[in-house]
Amino acid sequence: MVEEDRMTLAPTEIYGRSDEEHNEPRIWRRKTEQLPGNCLVYSLTIIVIVFAVCLILSLIFLRISKPEIEIRSVSTTDLRFGSNSTNSYFNATLVSDISIRNSNFGAFEFGNTLLRVVYADHGVVGETMIDGRRVEAHKTIRITGVVVDIGSFRLLNTRGLDSDLRSGFLELRIVAEIRGRIKVMGRRRWKVSVMSCTMRLNLTGRFIQNVLCE
């Protein structure tokens, strides 16, 4: 009996498909949540920005500066003078317009203020009173017709007056110190504004020239 050779058709080993060899189960992960530290950084950044804005606004609105006062115009009337070795004198009336500018965010209120006229370095030759006023925020008021009579009779020392009269010019200075208070957002601050304006009285032409305010 002849043995028949039998061929084994079934594979001796079982191999999986190539796509099954790496087909591992997927692991799903949630998106990383923001850490508490990031929220703290954002909060601090917002606080810093708000503080900076408040600081800038306070510097703008709460900054209080001195009101500006100056002479806009000045003229002279009733000028009389004489120059000789025994009796040198002068008398005149000055009429001036004064402006007061308030650049603050609050109103400026001041009381009655004394205005003086000084002749060179010899002393006061005239004075008058300016009535108190209220200057609104970012406004400029004009005080017109401020009259002051000046005369050399007020001087204790008239040395050099004779030569000045002969030259035809007198150096004058108008000074005033305005003291008032400014109220901004509930805060009240006292401020003092000083006016000092130099000028020259032309005796021949009978007018004021070279007005300069510091």
Keyphrases for this structure?
2 domains; 10 strands; Immunoglobulin-like; alpha+beta; single chain; about 50% strand; about 210 residues; 3 helices
Identify the CATH architecture of the largest domain.
Answer: Sandwich
CATH topology of the largest domain: Immunoglobulin-like
- The parts where pLDDT drops under 50 for at least 5 residues are none
- Strand percentage: over 45%
Distance between the termini: 143 Å
- CATH class category label of the largest domain: Mainly Beta
Number of domains: 2
Which series of helices and strands comes N to C?
Answer: HHEEEEEEEHEEE
Quickly count the helices.
3
Global outline: elongated
Radius of gyration (CA) equals 45 Å
Fraction in helix:
10-25%
Class from helix and strand fractions? alpha+beta
The mean pLDDT is 82
The main pleated sheet reads as: 7 strands, antiparallel
Number of strands: 10
Oligomeric state of shown chains? single chain
InterPro entries: NDR1-like
Keywords: Membrane, Transmembrane, Transmembrane helix
Transmembrane segments: 40-62
Protein name: Late embryogenesis abundant protein
Write structural notes for this entry.
With 214 residues, the chain is α+β, with helices and mostly antiparallel strands. It has 2 domains: 19-61, no CATH class; 68-213, Immunoglobulin-like. 17% of the residues lie in helices and 48% in strands. The protein contains 3 helices and 10 strands, in the order ααβββββββαβββ. It has helices at residues 18-21, 36-61, 161-167, and strands spanning 68-82, 89-102, 108-110, 113-119, 123-130, 133-135, 139-151, 169-184, 187-202, 207-213. Strands 3, 4, 5, 6, 8, 9 and 10 form a 7-stranded antiparallel β-sheet that branches. A hairpin with a 6-residue loop joins β1 (68-82) and β2. It starts with 17 loop residues before the first helix and ends with a strand.
